[in-house]
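User: Fold this; tokens only.

Assistant: Input:
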Amino acid sequence: MKSAGVRRTALITGSSRGLGKAIALEQAANGANVAINYLNSRGVAEEVCQEIQRSSGHACAFKADIRREDDVARLVREVEDTFGRVDILVVNATGPQPFLSIEEQTWELYLEQLEFFVKSPLLLLKQVLPGMRERGFGRVINIGSEVFEIGNARFANYVAAKGAQLGLTRSWARELAPTGITVNLVAPGWIPTERHVDSTQAELDTYAESVPMKHMGRVEDIARMVAFLASDGAAFITGQRISVNGGNTFA
């Protein structure tokens, strides 16, 4: 993660647990400063920082609601004050993901998902973009989902927002391609995390059986793909949706 002797900094939203935590640990293992973003779980976020620091890494926790413009401006300012820069932006934070019938869904529920997957990426990118442009380097990585390809029933508000997230990824990638800034999306399959503690073993087994590789993925699978896209080795890759789901989809 270093370039010309400078340690790069990765800002990862929603990184106190789950996929975000795994991404943060992998970024630290690859030599980046890591900005751990959280909203409510300060103690958990601090534990992630301590885990990174015990391995001689560099990490600090930052509270912010990434759906609020003033919070995002403060977040990026604090990260830059602490580490000097933001080179890698990983948009991972998400909220509740209820399964609801069409009759139960409302426009407000769609807007709630768009806040996470369209509004927050826009607010974050606008804050980090000036520094990335100035340095001629940037990595923007959105965490999407296989649901956009599958079209899960009773999940249209979430699926629609993930589709919009993919659209902005592709548009931003074309606009920023001449600047040295890449924009990509990693689309995980169902990766069990703390969010899924109420899932039954039967549900897990049914999903795993549907995956061509016949097993669930792990958070480390996603973290390693993000690390690759954040690296110098991915400099010629932009605007891509990369599925990490054992072959469950092919887009």
